[in-house]
Design brief:
By secondary structure, the protein is α+β, with helices and mostly antiparallel strands. It has a single domain, classed as Outer membrane efflux proteins (OEP). It contains nine helices and six strands, in the order H-E-H-H-E-H-E-H-H-E-H-E-E-H-H. It has a four-stranded antiparallel beta sheet with strand order 2-3-5-6. Helix 2 packs across helix 5 and helix 5 packs antiparallel against helix 7. About 35% of the residues are buried.
């Protein structure tokens, strides 16, 4: 009977709780066209990739990405933030339920009978009290949903941190792929520079020999030396860039990357899969960063309920129950029970506008979160549209540039043959070599641009998680 009397009010309060003053959440209208179009006019509705491995198909790149997912410090921080948010949510959720604590005590005292003024008692009066109790500390009866609204807000913040972690992974995968491809591109440029250095060194030796036999002018020698020096400069510059690219990749991975996993050049063929040329914009709502922004909007919406509840009374319950006795041996005998409980209601009367200001702030934060959510959608739309716009023409650019390299290589070969027969000048050879070198560099840069475009599109579409 005693335990029922103590805990019945608390259980009744839990049953009464559940009302919420938060406004009903409705997802804002998407501030974008229904379809992300491009020059092809294609409309597809792709599903999110089950894994990034479905797109990044090169085994070496896959291993590098796996190492980054295991060792990257930024991703580890994002995971820790998820755990922190989850703990905060669970801590806030605990306030929905009464807590129970137990305690036992033994008190003894001795007082002279003369001090107590007890008639007929001489000497000292000794008293011992033993008690064992269960107590319900102050528990707020959540009739107006203040605690429940705060719990909902904490839950949405936890979900937002989880979405932020997913966004961090997709960003990391894209960054690692981009760094890996950039390293391959600079290695290709270094190889072109070395080939040009060999060509210019051989040309310089030939020109010097002709000058020694009176068959070439000093200006031809000087020009050959200039081209050779420029080629040597380019080799040194790209060698430095390759080393810096490797350092940048190692930082992303979080550990040194094996040379066996590094690309020799840049070419998206066999490295990455294909992505759709057009999508329905609703797919962008599944992007982790957009989901994060929506979770934050939901949390801000829930905080309005907590701010509204501040205008209504707070009801607090406390209670204790247990047994007490002057002798330990009779502590649990019938008739030794005791209990007490108390309820307290506090109604705000005058707060100089504090609660009203709190409600206005909660609504303004909800409006801010909605603006951020809509901006996240617009940003996602633009990133996809920009990537698709570039993709529409990059293949044609690459084909044209490859044709130019082939033509310039044929021209350089023919001019060298004519020079050997005396039908072309040194200037013709130098010009053809310079033109070919520039075209090869542009081809490498265009290949990197094509690969980077695919990586950007992968990220813009929301990527794929493990």
């Amino acid at each position: 009977m005693m335990l029922r009397d103590i805990f019945a009010p608390a259980l009744l309060a839990v049953g009464l709780a559940g009302c919420s003053l938060a406004p009903a959440y409705h997802r804002p209208a998407t501030p974008t066209p229904a379809t992300v179009a491009n020059s092809y006019g294609a409309v597809e509705t792709p599903t999110r990739m089950a894994s990034w491995r479905a797109f990044f198909t090169d085994p070496r790149l896959q291993q590098v990405i796996e190492q980054a997912l295991a060792h990257n410090r930024d991703l580890a921080a994002a995971v820790a933030n998820v755990q922190i948010s989850r703990a905060e949510w669970l801590s806030q959720r605990a306030a929905l339920f009464p807590s129970l604590s137990g305690q036992a005590s033994a008190n003894g005292s001795q007082t002279p009978a003369s001090v107590l003024g007890l008639p007929g008692v001489s000497g000292s009066y000794t008293e011992r009290i033993y008690a064992a109790e269960l107590s319900v500390p102050a528990y707020e009866v959540d009739l107006f949903g203040r605690v429940r609204s705060r719990t909902k807000a904490a839950q949405e913040q936890y979900l937002a941190s989880a979405a932020a972690r997913d966004a961090a992974q997709i960003s990391l995968v894209g960054q690692v792929a981009q760094a890996w491809l950039t390293l391959g591109s600079d290695r290709s440029l270094l190889a072109v520079a070395k080939d040009t250095q060999d060509e210019t060194s051989a040309s310089l030796a030939l020109t010097q020999a002709k000058f020694d036999h009176g068959e070439a002018a000093q200006s031809d020698v000087d020009q050959a030396k200039g081209l050779a020096a420029q080629a040597s400069f380019n080799v040194a510059r790209y060698a430095t860039q390759v080393a810096q690219d490797k350092d940048a990749l190692d930082l992303l991975v979080g550990a040194p990357t094996s040379d066996a996993l590094l690309p020799a050049g840049v070419d998206s063929t066999g490295v990455m899969g294909q992505l759709p040329t057009g999508i329905v914009s609703a797919v962008l709502l599944d992007r982790p960063d957009v989901m994060e922004a929506e979770d934050q909007l939901k949390g801000a919406n829930a905080n309005i309920g907590a701010a509204r509840a501040a205008f209504f009374p707070d009801i607090m319950l406390t209670g204790t129950g247990g047994v007490t006795s002057t002798a330990l041996s009779s502590l649990f005998r019938p008739g030794s029970g005791e209990w007490s409980y108390a309820a307290q209601l506090t109604q705000p009367i005058f707060d100089a506008g504090k609660n009203r200001a709190g409600l206005l702030q909660a609504k303004a934060q909800r409006d801010l979160a909605q603006a951020n959510y809509e901006k996240a959608i617009q940003t996602a739309f633009r990133e996809v549209a920009d990537a698709l716009a570039q993709r529409a023409n990059i293949d044609a650019e690459l084909t044209a540039q490859q044709a130019q390299v082939d033509a310039d290589a044929d021209a350089a070969r023919l001019i060298k043959a004519e020079y050997a027969r005396g039908a072309a000048s040194e200037l013709d050879v130098f010009t053809a070599q310079s033109t070919l070198y520039a075209a090869e560099n542009t081809l490498v840069s265009t290949r990197l641009l094509q690969s980077s475009n695919l990586v950007a599109l992968y990220q813009a579409l929301g990527g794929g998680l493990s």
